[in-house]
Amino acid sequence: MVLDLDPDSVSIRHLTTLRHTQPLSALSLRGIRYGNALLPCDCRFLAKRLYSFNTAPLTRQWTDMDASAIWGLGRHGVDELLRKYSGHTEPYISNDWLSWRSAIPPALHASKPCWKIYVSTPAHEAGAALAKTLATLSITPFWSAVKIAWRSEWALRPDKLICYFESHDDLVIAGRHLATELSGFQTQGTPFTSALDDQGTVSWAVDPTSTPATKSAPSPPLSWRAWVATRLSELLLANRHEDYRYRIPLTLEAIRSDGVDTEAWLPLELCTTDTMK
User: Fold this and answer.
1) What pLDDT shows up at residue 105?
2) N or C terminus of the chain: which is more exposed, having fewer CB within 10 Å?
3) Coil, strand, or helix at residue 20?
4) Residue 221's closest CA among 211, 230, 234, 235?
């Protein structure tokens, strides 16, 4: 995969502070074990299952509730926060996501990596978490956009609330504030991302500018989590005839060879020894 990082955009000092014991590492490994237990199956089916792992069960409570109620629009001061910090811009819906742009968004470039923070709380805390996230972002520089899942069943996903940034340094500053402000919330946890706190409520990832073509997804470039899920599904299927005990170690070894740190679930180029000095 290609990140095409500008050396000046990644603070080595900040990267060092982010490398700690990863509370989401065990969650990601449970997801891989779950995928292994589904074999044999179709590769795309397996990739979707890995991508959506740790989604909460869909119950009548959530099917009967619309997305605006789940996200507390009209409550928690969310509407006022959106008006204040989004420059009075109207939200827009695309592919079942409701998104807002920052009042003064930086210039995003398709040729640069896309830096993301995930805020992952249970659905019943989604509205309060969104309000706290927006209030926190208001005091941090240059967040680009926020999007929330706009289907009631998607609010059960772990990756239901995503914040976008132009640079790693902007992400780190916002991440530190969010980790502090959201410390009292329960954690759901987004697999195949790297935690910014001790619980995994706030985590991050970076979408490469390009990803290697895979049999299941030759193009266009995938998001980081989608690419990881797709690649893991291919590797698990490739190892399906191996002894059950060895499938996961072989899969992890192979994806590490593809450039993935399987502890932090980040590109290895962000986790090298030289980078961490």
Assistant:
1) 53
2) C
3) coil
4) 211
- Cβ atoms of 270 and 207 closer than 8 Å: no
Pairing of strands 260-261, 114-119: unpaired
Provide the residue type at 118 as one letter.
Y
Task: Please report the pLDDT score of residue 247 as a whole number.
Answer: 92
Element (H, E) at 81: helix 78-85
Q: Distances in Å between the alpha carbon of 103 and those of 42, 82, 135? A: 44, 10, 14
Tokens of 61: 């409570």
CA angle 229, 137, 182 (to 5 degrees): 70
CATH class of 58-188: alpha beta
CB distance 35 to 232 below 8 Å: yes
Res 270: pLDDT: 80
CA 244 to the chain's CA centroid: 29
| C-alpha dist (Å) from residue 29 to 52, 139, 176, 232, 259 | 14, 35, 25, 11, 17
| Spans of the chain, pLDDT less than 70 | 1-21, 74-90, 103-111, 141, 209-221, 272-277
Distance from C-alpha of 139 to C-alpha of 96, rounded to nearest angstrom: 28
How far, in Å, CA of 68 to CA of 127, rounded? Answer: 9
Domain ranges of the chain: 58-188
Residue 88, pLDDT score: 43
Tell me what pLDDT residue 244 has: 79
* The predicted structure's pLDDT at residue 84: 60
Cα 79 from Cα 38, distance rounded (Å): 42
